[in-house]
Design brief:
- With 84 residues, this protein is of the alpha+beta class.
- 31% of the residues lie in helices and 19% in strands.
- It is built from three helices and four strands, in the order ββαββαα.
- A two-stranded antiparallel ribbon has the order 1-2. The chain has a two-stranded antiparallel ribbon with strand order 3-4.
- It is elongated, with a radius of gyration of 22 Å.
- The protein starts with 13 loop residues before the first strand and ends with a helix.
- The model has no long low-confidence stretch (mean pLDDT 89).
């Protein structure tokens, strides 16, 4: 298991096309369990001294099933709302 303390290090900003980027090492990606398709939320502190990238967790895969269960449980109400 990777100790996250060992992942803390300085990184340099580099030019990537018309943008700039930070590089994640293979160990970083393995620890974070991310790949090229992973989405991150970028948060910049008000004083401009910190940038935080937070992994956006995938929406629960069973959300449609849950919504259908709620709809079925309240079918009479849904029918009345449909006719408004």
């Amino acid at each position: 298991m990777i100790n996250p303390e060992n992942l803390n290090e300085s990184v340099k900003l580099f030019k990537n096309g018309n943008s700039y980027a930070f590089r994640l090492s293979k160990k970083d990606r393995e620890f974070l369990k991310v790949d090229g398709n992973t989405e991150f939320e970028k948060i910049i502190s008000p004083d401009g001294k910190e940038v935080i990238f937070r992994k956006v967790e995938a929406v629960r895969p069973n959300i449609l099933e849950t919504a259908n269960d709620i709809f079925d449980d309240h079918a009479d109400l849904m029918k009345r709302l449909e006719n408004l």
